[in-house]
C-alpha cells in the first residue's frame, strides 16, 4: 500500500462497507411471514404512468401516487438476516388480505391527487393476478395511470365585495402564487388564499378566514351559454374552445363568500395586554397571588423578580391601541421562544367591543431551567488542525456550563472547556486544549437604531487554545470578537428566511513555537514560513445565510467575507508586529430533492483568499494555515485523506521527502449524493448513499529553490486537468438524534498524475479505497 494511506484496520478491511451495502441492496428476495394460509394477500403493488414528463418529474409524481394507496395495498418489507441462503432478504410480515374494494378506493384517492395538481381528466385502470406458491396466494396489483394534459392558468382575477379587501388584494397582486401559464394546483390555490388572509389579518381583520374567501375556477368559455350571443361570435368561441381542449386552460377568480357573519370584516385594535412572565406549569392565573406592575401600558403579574419587566415589555410586538397585526402576534411568540429563557409561550386573545372592536391579549411565559451542565464526548477521524503525517483518530471531551438568563434579561452565556487528542502512527500525535466563553445579548448594543429585523443579538466571543503537534510545533492562540446577528422572515407562513452575522471587531493572536524538524521542512518548502508564523489578525467578518424550504425541495445559500488589516494597516506599530493582511471570501449552495424513500443532495462550494501583506520588505502570498482552504477527509473530497489533495496538479507534495498536508488560497468543490433507505433494524434506521466529489485547492507554492510551481496555481485553461474526481458508497446508521457515517471512496481522477491517462484510474484497485468515518451528513 502506498505511503500516506491509512495503515490500520480500516485500510485493510474498509472494503467491507461497499460490500455490505451492495449485499443489502441486492437483497431483493421478498419472503412473506405470518400470512393467512390459502387466502389472497397483497404481495406487490406497481404503479405504471403513461406520461411524457421528464424522468425526475415522473418519479416525483409516482412517489405522490404511491402515498395515495390504501394502507392495505402498501407493501412494507423489512430487511432480515437468515442462517441459510439467501442470508439477506426482504421480509413481508403480516401482509394484508386482498380486497378489491381497496383497489377502487386507491383509484379514487389517486384521481383526487391528480385533479388537485391540474390533471382534471385522468384515466386510471387496474389489473391484478394471483400467484400460488404452496399455501400462499400472492396478489400482485398493477395500476395504469394516464394523467392526460395538465390544465394551466390563463388568467387570475380578484372580485371581492368589500372595497378594502379588494384594494389590498390588488395592491399586493405582484406577490401572488398564481402565475399565468403555471399548472393549476390546489396547493397553490390554498397558498394564495393563505397569503391574502395574512395580508388582511395584518390590517386588523382578525376574524377573517378561508370560510370567507374562495377561488372560483372556470374551464369553459362562459359566453357560450349566453342565449343572446351572435352566431358568428359563437363560431369564434367554439374555435377558442377547441384550442383550449388541445392546450387546456382555466381562469381563477378569488371571491368573497356572501351571507357570512359581518363581524368577520370588522377591523380590530389591540386592547389591554396582561403578562405573566414567570408562570409555573401548574399555575392558575386567577387563583395564584402575584405582585403587579404597569410598564409601557402593559400590566404585569409576577411571583418573583426573575426577569426585568422593562426587558419583557420591550420584546412584546403587540402595542395597546395599535391596529391588530397577525405578524406582530407571531413575532411576539417567536421572539420569546428564541430568547431561550422560557420553555413555553402562550398568547390568548379575547374579543371586546368598545367604540371600536378590541382584542385583549394575555401572555403567559413559562421559564426554563436557568443553568445547565453539558458533558459531551466527541470522536472524529481524519480531521486535524495542523500538519499530519498519518491517519488520525480524534477523541475530545467537552465540559460546558450554560446560563440562559444572565442579568435577568435572557442573556445567554456559555463556557466550554475542551480537551482533545489525535491518535496517529505515533500514538498521541496532537493534543489540544480550548477554553471558550460566549455571550449572546438579545438586542443590538449600538449607538443607532435598527428596525424591522427578527431575533437581533449582540455576540461577544472569547477563546484561548493550546495545540501541541508532536515533533513539529506548538501553537498558542487567543481570539476576541464582537458582533451582531439577526434574521428576517417575510411572514409567519413564509417558506424562506434570511439571516446575517456581522463582526466589526475580530482579533486573533497566534504564537507558533517550531521544532528543529519543522524548521528543516521550512527550508524545503518556503511557503510554510508564511503560513506557519506568529501572526496578528484584526479583521471584520460578514456572513449571510438564506434558506428556502418546501415539502419536497430545500435550498440553502451561504456567503462569508473576512478582511484583515485593511484599516489597521495604517497603524505602523501593528505593521511591525506581524499583522496579517488578506481578504477571504467563500460561497456555498446546497440543494435537496426529497422522494418517498430517497433524496438527491447537491452541493457547490467556492472560496478565494487574496493576501497583500508584507514580512519586512518581502510580500506575502499565502493565507495563515488556520485560515487556509484544504480538501479531503469525511466532509470534503472523500477519496483523499484530510489535507492530502492538491494544490492543483502539482506532484511536489507527493514526494517522499515532503509528504505533508496541503493548504490553499483557493478552493472549488462540487458534491452529489443519492441517499436512500435500506431497512430498520432494532429501531435503528439503516441508510446508504452513492456519491461523487469533484474539486481541488490551489495556492502559490515554491520549491526549495524558491521557484514558483506553476501547476499548483489556478489557471482557467488548466481547470479540467487540475480537477480531482472521487466516487463511492456509504453505510449510515441513523439514531434520529445523531448519524454515524461509514464512507468508502475511490480516486477516479488524480490530478497529480495527469501524465498517465489524464490521471484517470491511476493505480486503481477494487479493495484499495479510502475509508472515512463521519458524524452526521457530509453536507
Note the topology.
Blueprint: H1 9-13, H2 16-25, E1 30-33, E2 40-49, H3 55-67, E3 78-81, E4 88-93, H4 100-116, E5 123-133, E6 136-146, E7 152-159, H5 163-171, H6 186-201, E8 213-218, H7 231-246, E9 249-256, E10 269-276, E11 291-295, E12 298-302, H8 309-314, H9 326-339, E13 342-353, E14 357-367, E15 371-381, E16 393-406, E17 411-424, E18 427-441, E19 454-469, E20 473-488, E21 496-514, H10 516-524, H11 527-531, E22 535-549, E23 553-564, H12 572-575, E24 582-594, E25 598-611, E26 614-615, E27 618-619, E28 666-681, E29 684-698, H13 719-722, E30 724-734, E31 739-749, E32 770-775
Q: What does the average pLDDT come to?
A: 83
From the spread of the alpha carbons, the general shape counts as globular
Structural class: alpha+beta
The end-to-end span amounts to 30 Å
Q: How many strands, which pairing sense, and closed or not: the largest β-sheet?
A: 16 strands, antiparallel
The percentage helix is 10-25%
In DSSP terms (H or I, runs of 4 or more residues), the helix count works out at 13
How many β-strand runs?
32
Biggest sheet strand order reads: 15-16-17-18-19-20-21-22-23-24-25-28-29-30-31-32
Strand content: 35-45%
Radius of gyration, in Å, reads 32 Å
**Uncertain runs:** 1-13, 221-226, 381-393
Amino acid at each position: 500500500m502506498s505511503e500516506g494511506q491509512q495503515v490500520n484496520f480500516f485500510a485493510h478491511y474498509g472494503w467491507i462497507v461497499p460490500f455490505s451495502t451492495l449485499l443489502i441492496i441486492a437483497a431483493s428476495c421478498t419472503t412473506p411471514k405470518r400470512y393467512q394460509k390459502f387466502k389472497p394477500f397483497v404481495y406487490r403493488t406497481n404503479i405504471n404512468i403513461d406520461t411524457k414528463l421528464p424522468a425526475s418529474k415522473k418519479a416525483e409524481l409516482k412517489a405522490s401516487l404511491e402515498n395515495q394507496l390504501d394502507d392495505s395495498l402498501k407493501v412494507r418489507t423489512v430487511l432480515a438476516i437468515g442462517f441459510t441462503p439467501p442470508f439477506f432478504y426482504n421480509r413481508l410480515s403480516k401482509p394484508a388480505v386482498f380486497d378489491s374494494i381497496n383497489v377502487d378506493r386507491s383509484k379514487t384517492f389517486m384521481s383526487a391527487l391528480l385533479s388537485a395538481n391540474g390533471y382534471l381528466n385522468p384515466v386510471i385502470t387496474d389489473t391484478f393476478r394471483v400467484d400460488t406458491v404452496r399455501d400462499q396466494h400472492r396478489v400482485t396489483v398493477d395500476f395504469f395511470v394516464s394523467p392526460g394534459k395538465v390544465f394551466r392558468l390563463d388568467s387570475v382575477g380578484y372580485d371581492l365585495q368589500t372595497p378594502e379587501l379588494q384594494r389590498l388584494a390588488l395592491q399586493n397582486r405582484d406577490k401572488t402564487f398564481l402565475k399565468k401559464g403555471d399548472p393549476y394546483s390546489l396547493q397553490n390555490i390554498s397558498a394564495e388564499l393563505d397569503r391574502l388572509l395574512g395580508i388582511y389579518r395584518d390590517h386588523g381583520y382578525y376574524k377573517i378566514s378561508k370560510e370567507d374567501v374562495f377561488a372560483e375556477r372556470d374551464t369553459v368559455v362562459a359566453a357560450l351559454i349566453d342565449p343572446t350571443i351572435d352566431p358568428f361570435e359563437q363560431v369564434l368561441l367554439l374555435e377558442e374552445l377547441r384550442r383550449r381542449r388541445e392546450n387546456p386552460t382555466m381562469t381563477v377568480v378569488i371571491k368573497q363568500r356572501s351571507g357570512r357573519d359581518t363581524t368577520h370584516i370588522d377591523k380590530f385594535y389591540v386592547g389591554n395586554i396582561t403578562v405573566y412572565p414567570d408562570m409555573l406549569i401548574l399555575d392558575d392565573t386567577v387563583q395564584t397571588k402575584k405582585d403587579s406592575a404597569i410598564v409601557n401600558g402593559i400590566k404585569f403579574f409576577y411571583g418573583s423578580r426573575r426577569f426585568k419587566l422593562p426587558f419583557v415589555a420591550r420584546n412584546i410586538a403587540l402595542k395597546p391601541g395599535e391596529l391588530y397585526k397577525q405578524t406582530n402576534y407571531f413575532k411576539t411568540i417567536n421572539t420569546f421562544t428564541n430568547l431561550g429563557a422560557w420553555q413555553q409561550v402562550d398568547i390568548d386573545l379575547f374579543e371586546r367591543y368598545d367604540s371600536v372592536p378590541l382584542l385583549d391579549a394575555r401572555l403567559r411565559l413559562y421559564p426554563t431551567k436557568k443553568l445547565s451542565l453539558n458533558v459531551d464526548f466527541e470522536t472524529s477521524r481524519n480531521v486535524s488542525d495542523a500538519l499530519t503525517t498519518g491517519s488520525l483518530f480524534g477523541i475530545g471531551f467537552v465540559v460546558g456550563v450554560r446560563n440562559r438568563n444572565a442579568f435577568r434579561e435572557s442573556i445567554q452565556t456559555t463556557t466550554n472547556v475542551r480537551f482533545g487528542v489525535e491518535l496517529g502512527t505515533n500514538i498521541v500525535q496532537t493534543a489540544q486544549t480550548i477554553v471558550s466563553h460566549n455571550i449572546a445579548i438579545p438586542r443590538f448594543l449600538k449607538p443607532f437604531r435598527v428596525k424591522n429585523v427578527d431575533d437581533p443579538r449582540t455576540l461577544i466571543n472569547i477563546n484561548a487554545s493550546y495545540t501541541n503537534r508532536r515533533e513539529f510545533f506548538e501553537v498558542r492562540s487567543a481570539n476576541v470578537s464582537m458582533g451582531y446577528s439577526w434574521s428576517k422572515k417575510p411572514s409567519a407562513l413564509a417558506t424562506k428566511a434570511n439571516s446575517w452575522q456581522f463582526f466589526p471587531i475580530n482579533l486573533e493572536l497566534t504564537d507558533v513555537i517550531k521544532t528543529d524538524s519543522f524548521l528543516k521542512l521550512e527550508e524545503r518548502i518556503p511557503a510554510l514560513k508564511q503560513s506557519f508564523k506568529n501572526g496578528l489578525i484584526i479583521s471584520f467578518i460578514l456572513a449571510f445565510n438564506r434558506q428556502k424550504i418546501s415539502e419536497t425541495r430545500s435550498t440553502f445559500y451561504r456567503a462569508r467575507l473576512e478582511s484583515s488589516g485593511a484599516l489597521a494597516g495604517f497603524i505602523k506599530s501593528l505593521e511591525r508586529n506581524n499583522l496579517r493582511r488578506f481578504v477571504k471570501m467563500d460561497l456555498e449552495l446546497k440543494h435537496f430533492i426529497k422522494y418517498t424513500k430517497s433524496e438527491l443532495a447537491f452541493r457547490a462550494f467556492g472560496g478565494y483568499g487574496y493576501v497583500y501583506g508584507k514580512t519586512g520588505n518581502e510580500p506575502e502570498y499565502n493565507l495563515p494555515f488556520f485560515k487556509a482552504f484544504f480538501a479531503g477527509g469525511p466532509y470534503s473530497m472523500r477519496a483523499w485523506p484530510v489535507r492530502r489533495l492538491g494544490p492543483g496538479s502539482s506532484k511536489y507534495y507527493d514526494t517522499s521527502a515532503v509528504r505533508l498536508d496541503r493548504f490553499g488560497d483557493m478552493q472549488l468543490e462540487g458534491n452529489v449524493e443519492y441517499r436512500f433507505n435500506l431497512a430498520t433494524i432494532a429501531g435503528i434506521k439503516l441508510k446508504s448513499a452513492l456519491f461523487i466529489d469533484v474539486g481541488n485547492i490551489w495556492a502559490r507554492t515554491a520549491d526549495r529553490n524558491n521557484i514558483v510551481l506553476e501547476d499548483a496555481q489556478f489557471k482557467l485553461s488548466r481547470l479540467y486537468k487540475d480537477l480531482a474526481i472521487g466516487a463511492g458508497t456509504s453505510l449510515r446508521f441513523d439514531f434520529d438524534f445523531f448519524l454515524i457515517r461509514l464512507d468508502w471512496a475511490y480516486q477516479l481522477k488524480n490530478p497529480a498524475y495527469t501524465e498517465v491517462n489524464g490521471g484517470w484510474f491511476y493505480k486503481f484497485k477494487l479493495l484499495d479505497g479510502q475509508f472515512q468515518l463521519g458524524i452526521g451528513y457530509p453536507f
